[in-house]
């Protein structure tokens, strides 16, 4: 009995509070709860499935990017300080990664995670593997799409194998930097002979280069040279499958991918003079981008740049492209003098004309120009016309090995 008054007091105190709560609580019929619940659950299920789908898409994208070599920026992510445009081949990615590493070593702010990003850009030259380069436009097929991305500010720099870069550049861009040059020589790869000179008569050699073709046929006119395109890995697979008896590749590319062990032998420059700018990596940027110019200038190798500039000046003087068998190599001696050797040949290798020039290294461009003028005067315009005619006729006869997508 003594607890009853206390209970009445508690009820009296709580009643106003319960009434207030009731005023703010909507009256929902049980059947209404039943009708609303499935819609809520449907939304949750849809939202969950959407998030799951996004996770699957993200995982797929990350897998594709990892397989390609390095990240393409996710939509909505913060822009990197510097975006490198590159082709997607293993060699191109190796060169882009080398550039990224050197930038990080030179500038701490570019070593931070996400500061430098790689953007893979497909070029026409990478996709059209069923036809000789010279027939569909030559060197520019490996750079055109990169040029467009650079001028559109989708990328800040483009990393190139310099031997693939035309002697002309789009207005508003500049090749401001060359990394230290790798070994410029070619390598011979075969399971049937140790050197090009030891190949049996009539052997089939795969090469996409008129420069190599001319010099190979000058060594042995009985050899058959077929157009052989694709990235390094693709060509090696075709060789292993017996589609050709031998091939030649740039030693620099193999070394950058730690694949120099694939070489049967290194070709002497006296047998096959390397391509203009072979073994050199070039970095292209917009000519008015002062910050980028400052960054990449720190990576430049002055001797490499002088040699590359000399060789490209020589090539430009001869209007050289993939339709002309031209080779050229410059080197800076310890005494500061630059020595250059160049040649032009007929595609059948029956005629090769050489030129040698030297001078102060700081005069590299003029040395290249003078060498080109001298060689042009020696061979004559008629010989240059004959080369183009011979190249055009060869397209109708030369089979293509290595068509299809690159591996």
Automatic annotation (TrEMBL):
Question: Which intervals hold domain Porphobilinogen deaminase C-terminal?
Answer: 306-376
Q: Which InterPro entries match?
A: HemC, Porphobilin_deaminase_cofac_BS, Porphobilin_deaminase_N, Porphobilinogen_deaminase_C, Porphobilinogen_deaminase_C_sf
A single GO molecular-function term is:
hydroxymethylbilane synthase activity
Q: Which pathway features in its UniProt record?
A: Porphyrin-containing compound metabolism; chlorophyll biosynthesis; Porphyrin-containing compound metabolism; protoporphyrin-IX biosynthesis; coproporphyrinogen-III from 5-aminolevulinate: step 2/4
Write the record's keywords in alphabetical order, separated by commas: Chloroplast, Plastid, Porphyrin biosynthesis, Signal, Transferase
Q: Which domain of life is it from?
A: Eukaryota
Main location per the UniProt record: plastid
Residues of the Porphobilinogen deaminase N-terminal domain: 82-293
Compartments, as annotated in UniProt: Plastid, Chloroplast
Is Chloroplast one of the keywords?
Answer: yes
The prosthetic group or cofactor this protein requires is: dipyrromethane
Extent of the signal sequence: 1-23
Question: Can you supply a Gene Ontology BP term from the record?
Answer: protoporphyrinogen IX biosynthetic process
Q: What class of enzyme is it?
A: transferase
- Please give the CDD domains that the UniProt record associates with this protein: PBP2_PBGD_1
- GO CC terms in record: chloroplast
What SUPFAM superfamilies does UniProt report for this protein, alphabetically? Periplasmic binding protein-like II, Porphobilinogen deaminase (hydroxymethylbilane synthase), C-terminal domain
Kindly give the Gene3D superfamilies that the UniProt entry links to this protein: Periplasmic binding protein-like II (3.40.190.10), Porphobilinogen deaminase, C-terminal domain (3.30.160.40)
EC number(s) reported in the record: 2.5.1.61
Q: Which family does it belong to?
A: Belongs to the HMBS family.
Its biological purpose is as follows: Tetrapolymerization of the monopyrrole PBG into the hydroxymethylbilane pre-uroporphyrinogen in several discrete steps.
- Name this polypeptide is given: Porphobilinogen deaminase, chloroplastic
Biological source species: Vitrella brassicaformis (strain CCMP3155)
